[in-house]
Amino acid sequence: MPAAPGSTGRPRSDAQRNREKLLTAARETIAAADGPIALEAVARRAGVGIGTLYRHFPSREELIEAVYAAELDDLATSATTLLAELPPELALRQWMNRYAAFSTTKRGMLDTLRSSIAAGRIAPRTRELITAAFAAILEAGARAGTLRDDIHPDDATMMLHGIFLTTGTGDVPGQTDRLLDLMADALATRR
Predict the structure, then answer these.
(1) I need a labelling partner for 114 at 20 to 30 A (CA). Which of 37, 59, 79, 87 fits?
(2) Which domains does the chain have, with CATH numbers?
(3) CB of 125 closer than 8 Å to CB of 72
(4) Is the pTM of this model over 0.70?
């Protein structure tokens, strides 16, 4: 949102609060939806008018992209949190579970995200953040001697994306978990 002439360039605090309320409401609405979301429902859930929603997010795509970006940031930073709490090999598996949940919930947004992906606004940043999270976990595991030190984070990212592309809505019960277990085992050192 552009700053008013003569302002400091930062959004007003009430405008920032409204933006955060809209993002939270959109996350909740998307998580509960089975298909496309009604923007009016998002505004209502946030406790703001539809005009406020459109001032912050002029299109459905911009709202969906903002939700996606916020959730992607949460996922990427969770790798550091997990590493602070767990040994690297357990942090890896927990982080892959979180990524699986993230991937599954995005299937409902896929139609809207497709144009953003095609325009190159989403895929490069997604890959960059996920690969950086993988790198942090793999490096910690290599230092601890529990994860292989010869795995390139980009290769691990591609493997994980392959799992999510081939499983999902038509998932055989437990198949994603089994494949994630196999991947974690492939990344572990042999003792």
Answers:
(1) 79
(2) 1-58 (1.10.10.60), 59-187 (1.10.357.10)
(3) yes
(4) yes
Mean pLDDT of 26-53: 88
- Token readout for 24 is 């939270």
> What are residue 188's phi and psi, to 5 degrees?
-75, 150
Which of these, 108, 92, 103, 182, lies nearest to 144 by C-alpha position? 92
**Packing angle between helix 123-144 and helix 153-166, nearest 10 degrees?**
120
159 falls in which pLDDT band (50, 70, 90)?
Answer: very high
Please tell me the distance from the alpha carbon of residue 22 to that of residue 63, in angstroms, as a whole number.
9
Kindly compute the dihedral angle of the four CA atoms of residues 37, 38, 43, 46, in this order, to the nearest 10 degrees.
-30
